[in-house]
Amino acid sequence: MRKIYDSAESALEGLLFDGMTIMAGGFGLCGIPENLITAIHKDGAKDLTVISNNCGVDGFGLGVLLDAKQIKKMISSYVGENKEFERQYLEGELELEFNPQGTLAERIRAGGAGIPGFYTKTGVGTVIAEGKDHRDFGGETFIMETGLVADVSIVKAWKADTEGNLVYRKTARNFNPMMATAGKITVVEVEEIVEAGELDPNHIHTPGIYVQRLIKGNHEKRIEQRTVRERETA
After folding, report:
1. Distance CA 18, CA 209 (A)
2. pLDDT average per 10 residues of sequence, the chain (234 residues)
3. Residue 90: in which H helix or E strand, if any?
4. pTM above 0.85, yes or no
C-alpha cells in the first residue's frame, strides 16, 4: 500500500468534499498540520465541521479556513486567540460545540477506540450538561458524552518511517495521537521520513496501521504569543 505522497495536495486528493468532518491536531499553533490545512484551503471544500482544540489564529493555521468561510461548525475547547472566530460566532455565522478540554480529548480517544459514549462528572450542573443523559454512579451524578470520529484526520508528527509509524516531539504530541486513531482516513505530515526499521519500536507513539497517507512538509513553526522582557540599560 502506497503511503508516501509528494505533496499535501496529492495526499488529500479524492478525500475532500463539502460538508465533511475533519479532525485537525495541534494545541494553539504547536503540532498543527499546517501544510495539510493550506491544501484544504486551496481545494475550497466548504461547510466543514472541524474537530480541533482551537481554531488557530487570525491568518494562520485553521484561521485560514475560517477567514475563507470554509468552516461551518467547530467542535472545540479553547477559541480565545482568534478575533475572526469571535466575530463569526457572535454574528451567527459559525456554529460552536464547546467542550471541556479533557472531555474533548476523551471523546476523540473514545471514537478511535470504537466506544460510542461514556459518562463523566465534568460539566455536571453547567450549560454543558443541558440535554444530556444523566446517571448516578456511587451516589454521584455523571453526564453522558459521545465519542467523536471524522471523515479525515489531519495530523502532524515529528518523524515517520515508510510504513507510517509515527513519533511526536515533546508537546507537539498533544491531540495528534488520539486523532490519528479516530479518522476514517488519517493523513499525516512529518518533518522527516526514514526507512522501515530505523525507528526504535519502543519509541513509536502511533503505529502505522492507523496511517493511510503521509507527506514530508515544510513547517513555519510560528509562535502563537511572544512575550519578552524589556532590555535593561545601564
Report:
1. 27
2. 93 98 95 97 98 93 96 93 92 96 98 98 95 97 98 98 97 96 98 96 97 93 80 76
3. helix 83-90
4. yes
